[in-house]
Amino acid sequence: MFAQRPTSLDRLILGYTAVLGVFIALNYSTVLRPAQLLLAHAAIIVCVLALPARGAAWERPSPGEPLPWTAIRSLLLYLRHMYPLGLVIFFFEEVGLFVNALWTDNPYWFEPLLFAADESLFGGLPTVLLNPLVGMPQDEIMHFFYFSYYLIVLGGGTLAYLSSPIRKDPIAPRFQLAIASVTASFLFAFVWYPYLPSRGPWETPELMAGLTPFQGIVFTPWIETIIAHGAVSGACFPSGHVSGSFGMTFGLLPHHPRAGRLCLFLACGMAVSCVYTRYHHAVDIFAGLACAALGYAFARFTAQNRAARL
Known about the structure:
The structure is a single chain. The chain is mainly α. The protein has one domain (8-309). It has twelve helices and no strands. The radius of gyration is 21 Å and the shape is globular.
């Protein structure tokens, strides 16, 4: 009754994977490790197509089911539904291998335009204008908000999953709206990176040399460690942090209003922190919000189409 494969979200992932695969193939000579990337993209397509239908019979418990199988099935069910959030990590990290594939003679060509846009909008660079506010309490608060990105995306997704009637309807609209919204928001941001490569202000040595170093004892060093090991140079515009956080927030608000409002508070703080921490230009934030709006619109549209078919 509920089985559906592939869903609209699955098809979006398949389409994104295929389109990026074509991009890699067309720019084979300027992409780093292209053969491995093409193999990975092919494997993703095969695995997504091979996934059991959402709502298949195995997802619902049978009478007298042994407790160990219930636990295993519950874990597999969680992974089946939450796999898009794992994939977006790979999709983000791979960008570093081809972000300048089209611009070998002029890498990060879009970056000066972002600096110019910020100066035009704010009368100066926000990273410089905010520098007088730098200090231990503010640094920790802003880095906590930056860290809240993980709480919003992972915590919000898990909450939507656990609070939906997943065992009665494994493609429950309340969960699907949230997971489709956040995933689509991420992908709508990622697709621009090879065409508009740019780095954040923190990667401009001459700018950073004149700014006050951050201080902190918990969140500041945590974020600096995460950035040192996981940041992708050139994947700045639109902000993936903003698109993903607001994508999840928008997906939660209709059916989980209290959690959605908490995520909205954290997401707003996180958006400000992206600029305060110097990881993003201010215009990256606006572009990330636009991607989140598109992601949520995609999720709403597909949810309405599904409801009309039932």
